[in-house]
Amino acid sequence: MTTPQGVEGVEGVEGVEGLLRELAPQVLGALMRRYGQFGDCEDAVQEALLAAALQWPEEGLPANPRGWLITVASRRLTDELRGDSARRQREARAAALLPPEALHALSPDEDRSSDEDDTLTLLFLCCHPALSPASQVALTLRAVGGLTTAQIARAFLVPEATMAQRISRAKGSIKSAGARFSMPPEEERAERLRVVLHVLYLIFNEGYTASSGPDLQRADLTTEAIRLARDIHRLLPDDGEVAGLLALMLLTDARRPARTLPDGNLIPLAEQDRRRWIQDLIREGVALVTATLSRAPIGPYQVQAAIAAIHDEASRAEETDWPQIVVLYELLAGISPNPMVTLNQAVAVAMVDGPEAGLDLLATLDADERMADNHRLEAVRAHLLEMAGDPAAARASYRTAARRTTSLPEQRYLEARAARLVEAGQTRSKAIATEPPPPRQRVARP
Amino acid sequence: MKYVVLIYSNPSTWETMPAAERDRVMGIHNRLIRELTESGELLRVDGLAHPTATKSVRLRDGAPVVTDGPFSEAKEQLAGVWALDVDSIERAIEVSAPVAEYDTVEIRQLMDLSGLEM
Questions:
Q1: What Cα–Cα distance (Å) separates residue B30 from each residue in A222, B10, B23, B108?
Q2: What span, in angstroms and rounded, lies between the C-alpha atoms of A96 and A149?
Q3: Residues of A near B (CB-CB distance < 8 A)?
Q4: B109/chain A closest Cα distance in angstroms
């Protein structure tokens, strides 16, 4: 029996869309094994998905949705190869009129266990090293995620024609790189998997950083990244970094309801209403990262997940186990040294050993070319200077950071912090000089 | 990263340019637009009407006050706007440079509505 799980419960446009996204890589995999031409197969599957998205909510699900899609996509593909558009239109109409039993009978008797291998093989293909990260992301969302070009274009705020061009070009690059529909050789697999995980991480971040207004559609991308990470985790349950990335996504996404105001303004971690964090996601993420840290070789996603778990487990910002976070950042800096790690490490060090210790660590980044003009370096410096009781210097750093960022919500936040220091300074100058120093500000994680 | 490329041009340069040279330069523009479209890096491209058609609007006491111009003393006027989505500022410079043979090109990054809490 080839009926996918959960079909009985599928109703309405959203239910159909979810089912189609789940079936997309299976259908594409089945076509690829039979016809082997990625670009053409992928186009045919997209056409079949679009046809299903129009027909199924109106006419109800076919008895075998997967078989229906494979049949319709195969016909489109063979018609496309023959260039017979008249016949194609005739058959599309005929397919819509066929009774479900007929489609069931026509459906290829594929081995279901190969579907899961197909998903992984497709991910490796879409995240081929011949492609730029932006192309890997677009192709993964379409071929594995089952999103339409229009949906991907909306999520990345570009015209649909532009996104269509990128996808078509990416397919061309895969073809000219001679990539095949097969798992990469054993010796390349670890490195190729690293690229796949990075692509999912990029997709997640695109969605997570979306704040409000016209940007909100992008939030869908976090759901999509988590769904794909779950798929890979199910296929490779023993891979620590796959589990680590999934845990990191869950533990980060758990804070989403508390990270922005309705107007899109950002709320720093230390000031978020932690009662709004999603406890189910936190529990799942903590369980995942705990289990994997105890048995798999350590890697950067696992350590980042462990840090996120410590933040998420503190019911108040004051209860955060900063000494433990410092230890984890030292570990992370050891296995994956980069300036962004040092930046976060400086915040943790400041929380444990005081702002001056954090500022000293930040100073080691001043000569780093990768951080020249980086707004986050100045933003963290500003927070630490504020914490150290130097409002004038903090204000200057906030303003520098505000000029450097290309994010409107970040700019609003940084300008507000600078303005608050100006007001506080003016109020204090009018007050009597014996006023006690302001309480130390809690610093947020950058 | 998204950028707008602002192309500033001196209308008299173009009015006095020999036809063959004008065709050559326009050929470069068209080739760039075609290449950027094919690479999926061009979001849109617009040419601006002659500066003499400029209107300035100011809201005064709740009502718009419209005047013709300004007809700037500046020799170079904004003549075209491209919107690009490219990997880096270096790439934006690389693809805009061929347009800057007679014109001046200004590259400005667009702000993003996304952001990360700090």
A1: 39, 19, 10, 22
A2: 23
A3: 132, 134, 156-159, 162-163, 165-166, 169, 206, 209-215, 218, 259-260, 264, 266-269, 272, 376, 379-380, 383, 405-411, 413-414, 444-446
A4: 8
ipTM at complex level? 0.86
pTM for the model = 0.85
pLDDT for A172-222, tens place per residue? 999 999 888 889 999 999 999 999 999 999 999 988 988 655 555 677 899
Q: Which residues are registered as beta bridge partners of A283?
A: none
Main-chain dihedrals φ then ψ at residue A440, nearest 5 degrees: -65, 135
Q: How many angstroms separate the CA atoms of A417 and A446, rounded?
A: 14
pLDDT in tens, B32-78: 999 999 999 999 999 999 888 889 999 999 999 999 987 766 788 99
Distance from CA of A65 to the nearest CA of B (A): 34
How confident is the model over A22-46, as a mean pLDDT?
Answer: 92
Mutation target for B interface from A203, A211, A340: give the one with most B CBs within 10 A: A211
Which residues share a beta bridge with B45?
Answer: B82
- C-beta separation of A103 from A62 below 8 A: yes
